[in-house]
């Protein structure tokens, strides 16, 4: 694909539930821990480096989900949310250090300051949008200091910590990496001196390039290096035509009334600049969903947050990813519906084009003789016939 290092590719644990059709209860899969475990163990085996576990009132608690999945996985990292204001920085430091120790250094931390005013109010947080970042800045002064040194003090406007202590350090030194996504000026300024990796939702490459340049400059002004990741859905099939058919199928049972209700809820409940940028890509219309070559905004008709998918054959999608990689993106947080099947499709079809090592057999599959799948009959698989 390029001379650069292969992309770091993470998958997604759909704790709000999963399904084959957006906006429909047909073939849906309710939130179920056994299903999450199937996805996590598959992702671990298929070559994904980690999984994002989402956070909201519609999701299972991500720290608990990660702790439950860690014993069933070997290499998989867990990107879980720290939400300032929902608990003290000292408490979050304790559970972060514990999870990092339980997983033997496989914790990644996702800073989520908020986006839904309604949800924040339910958590007892009533700060205005920009002020939430002032609060979060003080929160992470204490949180990071505890993880890095085991003790912290702060007499701030929002956070007060007197001789706070952390009994056990995390495995990773000085602490697990911090990821952050936020498109507002206040969010970018907050992240500039703090985040190790800045995340963007899947906007067209030109918009992502503009944002990356802005974040990179803000970080450099504070003497900080930052790397970049992107959150995208994927619809990959053997041909472009098959992929677009799958995209159409995904929203084939989605009514205009459901779209209108979802868009109204996003507008009413969210003060997220990133959410506004996602919604602006499609404007709630299903007739203009390819917002950039192979970048499809159909998911954002009803899903809040990340609402775009790359659609196409492996070569097509790899070419689109190279455009993002040339901008500076080195990490992809991916998903697809339903998540178990699509984890296989992306690994088997797309990873070879990206130079990512997929599933590796734990034992030799044969006595060094190439074979083809013979349907699983009693005679076993077939040897490759020379010249065939």
From TrEMBL:
- Purpose: Catalyzes the desulfonation of aliphatic sulfonates.
Q: Give GO terms for biological process.
A: alkanesulfonate catabolic process
Per the UniProt record, the source organism is Rhizobium setariae
Q: Does the keyword Oxidoreductase apply?
A: yes
As recorded in Swiss-Prot or TrEMBL, the protein's gene is named ssuD
- Which Gene3D superfamilies would you find in this protein's record? Luciferase-like domain
Locate the Luciferase-like domain: which residues?
8-330
Keyword terms: Flavoprotein, FMN, Monooxygenase, Oxidoreductase
Name of the featured protein: Alkanesulfonate monooxygenase
Family according to the record: Belongs to the SsuD family.
Is Oxidoreductase a UniProt keyword of this protein? yes
Alphabetical list of NCBIfam families matching this protein: alk_sulf_monoox, PRK00719.1
The terms under GO molecular function for this entry are: alkanesulfonate monooxygenase activity
What reaction gets catalysed by this protein? an alkanesulfonate + FMNH2 + O2 = an aldehyde + FMN + sulfite + H2O + 2 H(+)
């Amino acid at each position: 694909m390029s001379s650069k290092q292969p992309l770091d590719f993470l998958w997604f644990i759909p704790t709000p539930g999963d399904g084959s059709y957006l906006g429909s209860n047909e073939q849906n899969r309710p939130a179920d821990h056994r299903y999450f475990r199937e996805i996590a163990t598959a992702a671990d085996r298929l070559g994904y480096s980690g999984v994002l576990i989402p956070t909201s009132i519609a999701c299972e608690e991500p720290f608990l989900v990660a702790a439950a999945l860690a014993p069933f996985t070997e290499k998989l990292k867990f990107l879980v949310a720290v939400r300032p204001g929902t608990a003290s920085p000292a408490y979050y430091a304790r559970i972060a250090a514990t999870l990092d120790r339980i997983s033997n250094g496989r914790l990644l931390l996702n800073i989520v300051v908020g986006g839904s005013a309604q949800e924040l109010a339910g958590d007892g947080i009533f700060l205005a949008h920009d002020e939430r970042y002032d609060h979060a800045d003080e929160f992470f002064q204490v949180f990071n200091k505890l993880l890095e040194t085991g003790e912290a003090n702060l007499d701030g406007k929002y956070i007060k910590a007197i001789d706070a202590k952390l009994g056990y350090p995390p495995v990773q030194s000085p602490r697990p990496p911090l990821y952050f996504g936020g498109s507002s000026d206040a969010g970018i300024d907050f992240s500039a001196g703090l985040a190790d990796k800045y995340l963007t939702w899947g906007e067209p490459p030109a918009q992502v390039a503009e944002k990356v340049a802005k974040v990179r400059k803000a970080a450099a002004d504070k003497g900080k290096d930052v790397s970049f990741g992107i959150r995208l859905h994927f619809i990959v099939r053997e041909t472009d035509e098959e992929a677009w058919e799958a995209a159409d199928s995904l929203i084939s049972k989605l009514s205009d009334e459901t779209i209108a209700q979802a868009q109204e809820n996003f507008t009413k409940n969210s003060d997220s600049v990133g959410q506004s940028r996602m919604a602006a890509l499609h404007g709630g219309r299903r007739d203009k969903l390819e917002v950039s070559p192979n970048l499809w905004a159909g998911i954002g008709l009803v899903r809040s947050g990340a609402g775009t998918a790359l659609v196409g054959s492996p070569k097509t999608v790899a070419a689109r990813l190279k455009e993002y990689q040339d901008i500076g993106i080195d990490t992809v947080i991916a998903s697809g519906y339903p998540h178990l099947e699509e984890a296989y499709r992306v690994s088997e079809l797309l990873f070879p084009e990206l130079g990512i090592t997929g599933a590796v057999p734990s034992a030799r599959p044969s006595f060094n003789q190439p074979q083809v799948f013979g349907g699983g009959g009693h005679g076993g698989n077939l040897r490759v016939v020379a010249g065939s």
